[in-house]
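Quick sanity check, Cysteine hydrolase:
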Amino acid sequence: MGQGLNRAIGPRTVHLCVDMQHLFAPGGPWPTPWAPRILPVIVELAARAPGRTLFSRFIPPHAPEALPGSWRHLYGKWREVTQQELAPELLELVPELKRFTPPARLIDKTRYSAFSSPTLLPTLAHLGADTLVLSGAETDVCILATLFDAVDYGYRVVVARDAVCSSSDAGHDAVLGMLSQRLSMQVEVADAQDILSAWRTDAAA
């Protein structure tokens, strides 16, 4: 259950790539060491329909005090990741993906889920989206948070298994293992080549 595609992927699909930024690349302050391994796969997904691709970017606060509650504790520990200290270029997409913008759009967020951005839902509505293909980082944090919000909003969710990664192998495996057992009516997990083979796009994509 939860493995493979249940049906074809239609032209109302949007590819949502989460947080593939220098911030999370090897050498960044929050590295996902095997992000380079999934990057060529994400490039293939983005190239299929650049105009229906969204790239979220995780934007830390200027200072810990700018966010409430436990976020202050997080950025108190990681003050070097706040905008007071962070090099601005670390917030940018990696160049292999930045070249798709435009027509691909940027969705900036300050929380884990891409749906915390006030621009995501209006953008999805403008694109007439009914299905989201998820890629990016991290499987067990921002991907997972985005996935549950997408399900709550009624989207069909397809996770590109070979286009998501985490700094925690155990966390990554745990999420994919959970999805193999749960949510099979709303979330499908498939390799990118199977997604691309099943994805019917129109000329406007």
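Posting the structure with no commentary besides this: Helices lie at 35-48, 70-77, 95-98, 120-126, 139-152, 169-179, 192-198.
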